[in-house]
Design brief:
single chain, about 140 residues, alpha+beta, two-stranded antiparallel ribbon, 5 helices, 4 strands, globular
Length: about 140
């Protein structure tokens, strides 16, 4: 089957590249997936995304908010509660990523664990996958 790919202009190329870099940035897709699957509080997101530090979560959440993918809701209680939700744009992005997830199931090799990753210890249970059962979007540890 042969496809004729539409030629894109420079502006479209820059937009596409920017989007791919944002989603491909370490932890961003895991954070978005965790929120899409119901994690709304900082601690819930940390628990859902194995290996993510508080500092990096705070940084990525700010970036995802600036990009219009996440919204921050402050609930005036004692102590103050903060919850995160996908925006309409963020939910649309998650739907757009589903074909990539399906492609990864068919073609992508599982990611290798790094030497610095404490989870690379054979005694540590391997991460399990969440709803999509995708190595690309895997965010939970089994242990």
């Amino acid at each position: 089957m042969r496809h004729e790919w539409q030629r894109i202009n420079d502006e479209e190329c820059r937009r596409f590249q920017s989007s791919v870099e944002l989603v491909g940035k370490r932890w961003s897709s895991g954070i978005l997936l965790a929120v899409a699957q119901g994690a709304t509080r900082f601690t819930e997101i940390i628990a859902a995304v194995s290996g993510l530090s508080d500092r990096l979560l705070a940084q990525r959440v700010r970036e995802l908010q600036t990009a219009g993918l996440l919204e921050r809701e402050v609930i005036p209680t004692t102590p103050v509660q903060v919850r995160y939700h996908l925006t309409t744009r963020g939910a649309d992005l998650m739907r757009a990523l589903q074909p990539l997830d399906e492609w990864s199931q068919r073609w992508a090799q599982p990611a290798r664990r790094s030497v610095e990753d404490p989870a690379s210890d054979p005694a540590t249970p391997a991460p399990t996958t969440t709803a999509s059962n995708s190595g690309l979007l895997s965010v939970r540890d089994s242990g």
